[in-house]
Structures are given as C-alpha cells and as structure tokens.
Amino acid sequence: MSSPEPYTISVPDAAIEKLKRKLADADYPDELETDDQWRYGAPLSDVRRLAQYWEQGFDWRKAETEMNKLPNFRKKVKVEGFGEIDVHFVHQRSEVEGAVPLLFCHGWPGSFLEVTKILPLLKGGDGKPAFHVVAPSLPNFGFSQSILKPGFALPQYAETCHRLMLDLGYDTYVTQGGDWGFYTTRIMGVLYPQHVLASHINLVRANPPSFSSQPALALQHALTPYSESEKIGLERSNWFTTEGQAYRQLHATKPQTLSYAFASSPVALLAWIYEKLHDWTDAYPWTDDETLTWVSIYWFSTAGPNAHIRIYYEASHNPTKEVPSRERASEWVGSVKLGLAHFPNEITVVPRIWGRTLGSVVHESVSEKGGHFAAWERPDVIAGDLQKMFGKGGACFGIVPGKDGYD
C-alpha cells in the first residue's frame, strides 16, 4: 500500500497557451431572437463573454494558487479488476483527538473544490464537533486518474472511496454527498455497511412508499396531503424530467460521440457546464472567476476534458447482484443512519415522506433557499447539519467507535 504524497496542482504553461489559442479561434452559433434565451440553453452573450474572459483575463495561476492552499494529496488505491488507481484528494486532518472521519463526495459537474467552503466550518470548537475531512477527485474527474477499461461503475467508485478511507486509517467513517456523491455514498452503505455508519445527503432521490414494501409508511403517505412547498417541489422535479435531463440521456447512451466536442472545444465544455451552474442553483450569484475555475478544472483534468461523462454510461450498463442498477441507491439501506437536507431548487425535490423510504432517517433539514451544489451555495446548512447530527445531543453522537469529535 502506497503512502499519501503531498500534491501540487500545476498545469503546464503549454496547456494554458493551447487553451487560449482554441478560445481565440472559436466559432459561435447564432440564436433565436427572443428575450428568454435560457429556454433554449446557455445564451450566446453569456458564453461569448465568459469565453473571451477565459482567453484574455482569467488568471488560472491565481486559481491554482488558491487551490494549492488546500491540503492536497495523491495516492494509489487498489480497486479489484482495475489495479492501482492514482487518486487525488483533499485531506484536512483535525488536531482534535477523536475527530469524526468524514468522506465528502462530489458529483457532476462539480469537483473536490465544493468541499472548500465547509472545511473551516468542520474544524470544531465552540461546542461543535470536529471532523477529519477527506474529499477525493473521483476517478475520471479533476486530478485523479483516467479509467480506460470498461466497467468502472458505481461499485468501483464506491470501492475507490472506501479503500481510500481504509488506507488513510479510517476503518469506520461517515459520508456526505450530492449528485454522484449521493449515488456513490449510498452504494458504499450497501457494500460496506460495517464501515459506513452514517450518511448525509443533499440530493434526495427517492420514490413514494409502497404498500408491498413499507405498508405503514405507505398508509401515512396516502392519508397525508402534500404541503404547498412539496407540490412546488414536485413541479420542479417534473421540469427536470421533461426539460432538463437531455444531457443525462446523451452521457448515458453515447458518451464517446459527445466526447469529441469536449476534447476539441473549450467553448462547448464551457456552455455545457455553465448551463447547469445556472439552471441547477437557486439564483446563486456566480462570478465569472468562479464559473471559469469550475470549468477549468474539467478542461485541465488529468483524465482529459471528456472522461467525466463516462460515469453515466458505466453506472447504467454494468449491473451486479448487489447493485442491479443505480436505482439501488434510491432504495432502503437500513444499516446506515441517514441525514437529509432538502433544498427548493434541487433538480429533484421530493416530499419529505419519500425520503424516509431510503433508510433510518435520524436528521432532516428543510431550507427555503438553495439548489444542487449545496456545499457551495449553502455551506452553512451542510456544515450545520453535520454538526447537529454528530454533535452532543445529536442522533449520531459517538457513532464512530472512539470518536465523538471533541477533545
């Protein structure tokens, strides 16, 4: 087993110059004459402005310097059938004896960067618990290795994260995730229930309770009308299903064809991701520097600017007995204590009772503002939930043997 090594993010000058040449030579499409361009996708004026700033004004080296202030590491992690995989991760080890080990798992189109805002909030003190935080770049994302062998699906992503935690000395731990972080951490609970003791999620992908599997909950569901906010949430979910998920169909069916656009055109990658940053957040005031830092992590990814979409195909085409489909993550995982965070502008917003079909819910929060990238948009809520779940008086206080998060 290899030891973790400090890692410095350092994109070659030649790669930056090549990006600028591509941006300078970019062609742009026309668009319809309408006051509501967002109905059709990312507006030309926004994408052109961002691309020109990316070429002429954005300072990647400044962003790189800020990211290198994080405790970045890399190590090789053994995954069955795939050998050793080089994984980049942020590891904020607490100085508090008994701090709670926490795996933070990002999704698409996010990255390890999403953990940045909650790191200072999880150091403990003032009566709050402390955490050892581990935030990897998933394989094919960020500064982790590309996987070119078919079949690297949810069980393998789960195994990568689990073995990383074991290699770092955390035999039992807790997790937090949204988007693919929801799926990955939920499958970790399915496959490694003796190690994953509690999970907190901010994407609540769940179904209505059924009389065949959960009759008491189904009866409660049948007798309890939805609140007005829950009805609005279902409308949001329906919007995503009918108007917002074409990207997922492409990622999950023919990722290679789409990859040519991302490998060749930084403007294509920018527009693809920027649309989601707009549509999936709750009027979050993205600065151009924030947007371009997020997109640049994808463009300068160790795995290349197209590898990230493969997770959709592999997760949909590699069933196993334990994980017959990615929908296993939306079913009961009873051995793992569960915390739920509901946000009104998430891509899927389900009634609260649906969330109770996922497992033993011990903590729940409902926010009036926030969207898909919760740790970035509402770090106060994510950190607050974790503090309440694992702090004194919380349902998961002391759940990790010998770890209560306090001196």
UniProtKB/TrEMBL annotation:
<protein>
    <submittedName>
        <fullName>Alpha/beta-hydrolase</fullName>
    </submittedName>
</protein>
<dbReference type="InterPro" id="IPR029058">
    <property type="entry name" value="AB_hydrolase_fold"/>
</dbReference>
<dbReference type="GO" id="GO:0004301">
    <property type="term" value="F:epoxide hydrolase activity"/>
</dbReference>
<dbReference type="Pfam" id="PF06441">
    <property type="entry name" value="EHN"/>
</dbReference>
<comment type="similarity">
    <text>Belongs to the peptidase S33 family.</text>
</comment>
<dbReference type="GO" id="GO:0097176">
    <property type="term" value="P:epoxide metabolic process"/>
</dbReference>
<feature type="domain" description="Epoxide hydrolase N-terminal">
    <location>
        <begin position="5"/>
        <end position="115"/>
    </location>
</feature>
<dbReference type="InterPro" id="IPR000639">
    <property type="entry name" value="Epox_hydrolase-like"/>
</dbReference>
<keyword id="KW-0378">Hydrolase</keyword>
<dbReference type="InterPro" id="IPR010497">
    <property type="entry name" value="Epoxide_hydro_N"/>
</dbReference>
<dbReference type="InterPro" id="IPR016292">
    <property type="entry name" value="Epoxide_hydrolase"/>
</dbReference>
<feature type="active site" description="Proton acceptor">
    <location>
        <position position="372"/>
    </location>
</feature>
<keyword id="KW-0058">Aromatic hydrocarbons catabolism</keyword>
<feature type="active site" description="Proton donor">
    <location>
        <position position="312"/>
    </location>
</feature>
<feature type="active site" description="Nucleophile">
    <location>
        <position position="179"/>
    </location>
</feature>
